[in-house]
Amino acid sequence: MLAMNSAADVIPLEPGWEKMREGIDKFTAIMEGGFRESFPLAMHSELYTTCYAMCTQKAPHNWADELYKRYGTMYEQQLEQTVLPAIKAKHGTEMLREFARRWKNHKLLVRQMWKLFVYLDRFYIKRISALPLKAVGVQKFEQVVFNQVKEEVRAGVLQLIEKEREGDMVDRDLLKQVVDVFVEIGDWRPLFPTRVGEEIGDIGQARLNTYVKELETQLLADTSAFYARESSSWIGTDSCPEYMKKAENRLQQEVALVAAYLHGSTEEKLLKEVETQLLANHQSALLDKEETGCRALLREEKQDDLKRMYKLFQRLPNSVTCGLQPISQIVREHIVDVGMSHVRKEEAEKDHSMYAQQLIDLHDQYHAMVQGSFGSNTLFQKVLKEAFEVFVNKDIGTSSTAELLSTFCDNIMKTGGDKIEGEIDTVLDKIVMLFSYLSDKDMFAEFYRKQLAKRLLLNRSASDDDERSLITKLKYRCGAQFTSKLEGMLTDMNVSKDSQNNFATWMRTSETNLGMECAVTVLTTGFWPTYKVDEVALPAELLRCVDTFTRYYESRTSHRKLKWIHTLGTCVLTGRFDTKPIELVIATYQACILMLFNQQEEYTTADIATATKLPMEGLMKYMQTLALSKYQILTKSPKGKEMLESDVFTFNRAFTDRQRKIKMSLLVTKVSADEKLSTKQTVDEDRKHAVEASIVRVMKARKTMAHQQLVMEVSQQLMKLFRPDPKVIKNRIESLISREYLERDKDNQGVYKYLA
């Protein structure tokens, strides 16, 4: 059974407080003495017990309320009488040191007092929802000390920071301790160890209110002013690279400064002020410096300086006059200028065979710059593309870049990329990248188709795999429709090889002997270029080959009709000359001419025309190759370069050559002027059909549409292949109206309707 407290056990207020005061004074003395001795454990237990008893006594002897009041007053007296005078007695760095030491001691005092008065915290304060003991301790320091000296402390801190920026050594540890006071004053909770299970809560960014208001705001203003002065002195005297190095160094210093003694939340705001003063406010002047600005760095290929410029101005927000955008525009202008100078230089040259390689090299140079100096930033990738599109689409003399790029591909495919293993795929990737900048992709496709045809038919292609690789890359870039004809041509060649094997088997089975080897390539009309067909009178030997293969082919299919294109054919004849027999690899028409001389010794030009049924203009070219070229198989009389119908030709038995086999094919692999013209005409015709098809697709989906909208949508659809002329679109619309695919709106002539 518990006994009731007797009157003798009750602790009166004043004696009880006097005992508590003795303990408080004892701890304060130990603290002021530098903690040379420990606070007696027995006294700690006695004081805790006294506080507990005074708070648990029954009314009117329950002194919890009075103890809570005197707890706050005790701090006020100690701070006013001891701490504040000690801080005010000192100045400069010593004042900051005293301020930091007093705050450190005050935290220890609050922790110790909380241990003595903890019963108040656990029960009394929770019951009346009063300010916790630890908060009271911090609040009293703020009210009595901090608010009295904060301006002097802030001025001292800012002065030391400016000294460090000017290159002087400062006590960073001291600055850290002082700055931490501004942070810690804002929230007492993280300062003291807590009991297990005690909820201390989190007030978020509000805990930094005092730090922001009393220190950070002025720090940012002073920082802005400091760097405004410094940048103004730099911009007038330093070169662009020197200025950027200083700015980069300053930014690194500010990051280190924050890490050393400021709160982490200040970094972003502080750097923003530095960036504004050092970079944003002087960007135009810096970039436009005549001898050292951005244009000069690009001209001189100063990659490290350009990289530094990118990293610095990447920090700024992007706009027309700020950040990376102005730099990207200068880069664009520079690349266009360099590209146009290449165009002008190339126009003065006669041989344009290396122009595409020059463009690839130029692209490699600036692509490497975008990847390296500008970190593959999408903004710079975009201006690289825009810049190349400007000059890549400029014609070089009478040749378009589409044609020159196709010819370059032709040379690559014939040589296998200079026979370097592993490099050909990289070269093809670069070609396709350059191709992507062409506005007339359909023009490239048509030239490429004609040159591919010649490579395949003359067996000039170095690698089928490379041919397929490039077509696959083009297909990936432009879609299956773009490369369908090219793929069809390769397929035809593979099918023809199988067909040739089957033909050989058929001849053996049917016991057919042609007396010579015969190889036929069957081409699908829609895939291959259109070739001129001449009615030629073939020699009996060749005619027998044609008839035999026709019988074989018709026995295999009844749905296809063969059309013989002898202009693409090749024959191998053996010329029996006086010195030795020589094999002649020649065009079919050349073979038709030479085989006439098996029948008689001499012919006039007119006789040959009658016998072969070749047109005179074409025949003259063939006769020149046989009588006036490097290999003079025929002798012309009278001698001379002029060709007449009355000229007499005889077989030159005295002809000889070091080789036992010589090639004399007339099928020229280079693009002739006539082929250029026919290619452009074919492309123009195809474009008309493409425009009409696009108009019909759009109108079928929309039913009704205004003229301007229709032109824009059709242009957008066709932009992947070519850049359509609005006049052409308008003409095709008129054509579709006349053919009753479309009609004009009766109330608004600028609106079209689709007719189903």
How do the strands and helices of this protein lay out in sequence?
Elements: H1 13-32, H2 41-56, H3 64-88, H4 92-116, H5 118-128, H6 133-165, H7 172-184, H8 209-237, H9 240-261, H10 266-278, H11 283-287, H12 294-299, H13 303-313, H14 324-347, H15 355-372, H16 378-392, H17 401-419, H18 424-436, H19 441-457, H20 464-478, H21 480-509, H22 540-556, E1 570-576, E2 581-587, H23 588-594, E3 602-604, H24 605-612, H25 616-627, E4 634-637, E5 648-651, E6 661-663, H26 673-702, E7 704-706, H27 707-718, H28 726-738, E8 742-744, E9 751-754
Parallel strand pairs: 2-6
Antiparallel strand pairs: 1-2, 3-5, 4-5, 7-9, 8-9
Helix pairs in contact: 1-2, 1-4, 2-5, 3-4, 3-6, 4-6, 4-7, 6-8, 7-8, 8-10, 9-10, 9-13, 14-15, 14-16, 15-16, 17-18, 17-19, 18-20, 19-21, 19-26, 20-21, 24-25, 26-27, 26-28
List keywords for this structure.
single chain, about 750 residues, mainly alpha, 3-stranded mixed beta sheet, 3-stranded antiparallel beta sheet, elongated, disordered N terminus
